[in-house]
Amino acid sequence: MSGKRKKLVLENGREFPAAGFGCDRESIGELVFNTSMVGYQEILSDPSYTGQIIVMTYPLIGNYGITDEDYETKYPSISGMVVKENNDNPSNFRFTKTLSEVLEENGIPGISGVDTRLLTRMLRDSQEIRAIITDLETPTEEAVKKIKENSRERNLVRRVSSKKRWFARTPNHKYEIVVIDCGMKLNMVRSLNNHGCNVTVVPWDTPAETIRSYNPDGVLVSNGPGSPEDVPEVVDTIRNLIGKVPIFGICLGHQLIGLAYGAKIIHINPGHRGGNHPVKELSSGKVMITSQNHGYAIDKASLEKTKLKLTHINLLDETVEGTECREDRVISVQFHPESAPGPQDTIYLFDRFIKMIDEIKTPLQKTF
Q: How far from 194 is each of 188, 311, 342, 348, CA to CA, in Å?
């Protein structure tokens, strides 16, 4: 574990001295903040944060340790973690390792002692900011130069998606679901299993013909990192599946479905990251608290020119939070109905996905 004096340097030259923990190495990434009060393990292991340095707004992190059963991916891929106070002596009876140990094992640097409230206000009021975690002795000019010379990786989905097909089965299953893994959280698979589904997880670049050969009852397009425009292959796959099988898109999957129907994508600032975002379901008027993690959204004006109908809207900035095309049996949401961490207000959307499957009376393989 580090224990060394470190600092966070922003690309504008602003720097924050800190104490290091986790892996003792230099790291560059997009700086983002998360407003969740709990769930730091699920956040650090969410593939959607690949390449990002996460600022936790809740002041005390690490106090309940890390538990083997709670990972969202086996190999966390964030670029760093910034906290106000790191507790390296957790008391939770379930914990198996400390936060610092897990960061060290996965090559991820962490820093503590930072004024995360000030940093969050800066991020909230600025455009995208990139930063570096480095040694305290590193000259500021050198640190800024390293940030500017570091090229952005465009297709982050390729890095975190499954390399081969794999299965997650459940007793007495009723449905067969294929999940297109764009950087999937494992709780999506758990949620599908809990709804009586056997799950086949396939890599992000699996063609539609291969997916259809598995005779699925439905297809889920998962969350993942980066811009949906970086993975046109997945958009083409969705286009070739529309109308052939019920489709459910979550987070990045929601944006990819929007592109497949001809909508446009916009970058939002600040992004939505945390478990306290209010979303309104237009059909019922019900307001739900949701868990989110994204910096892109479907452009509302362009959505109106497609077959997709707006179903959910964000009450903070009125961005698109959900769409559907009943004719094609397609639904999508920008937030995470499986949460982990976060509220359980929207888990019912898995039931809605299952209902779309139930409505089909003819075996899908006969419709291909």
A: 10, 25, 18, 12
Spatial CB neighbours of 108, under 8 Å, sequence gap ≥ 6: 22, 23, 27, 44, 76, 78, 79, 80, 81
Cis preceding-peptide flag for 270 (omega within 30 of 0): yes
Burial class (CB in 10 A: 0-12, 13-18, 19+), 22: buried
List alpha helices for 168-321, DSSP H.
186-194, 208-213, 232-241, 252-260, 300-303
User: Are residues 193 and 172 in contact, defined by beta-carbon separation less than 8 angstroms?
Assistant: no
Cβ contact 5:17 at 8 Å: yes
Q: How high is the pLDDT of residue 2?
A: 61
pLDDT the model gives residue 1: 59
Distance CA 304, CA 323 (A): 11
Kindly report, residue by residue over 42-63, the tens digit of the pLDDT. Answer: 999 999 999 999 999 999 999 9
Low-confidence ranges of the chain (pLDDT < 70): 1-2, 361-368
Largest CA distance in the chain: 68
Residue 267 and residue 95: Cα distance in Å, rounded? 37
> Considering the entire predicted model, what is its pTM?
0.94
Q: What is the DSSP string of 218-234?
A: EEEE---SS-GGG-HHH
Tell me which residues are annotated as active site: 251, 336, 338
